[in-house]
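Can anyone check this?
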Amino acid sequence: PIVNTLTALPISFAGIGIRESLFQVLLNDLCNIPGGVGAAIGSLGFAMRAVWGLPGGVLMLRYRKSRKR
């Protein structure tokens, strides 16, 4: 929740960079996980959201087009 809240702030585009830095710091401090692994976890989380968001965006655009007809 902390990472999601801070990445929602309009500091950078989609929280890129902030998310990875926060995961590096928090996972290192809390679980002694190396920084590179924390950055990879943050990047994979963003990639998963983007991959799931693309089909939703396509469906939304198709739905809008069908309602205009």
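Reply from J.R.: I decoded it. The two ends are 42 Å apart (CA to CA).
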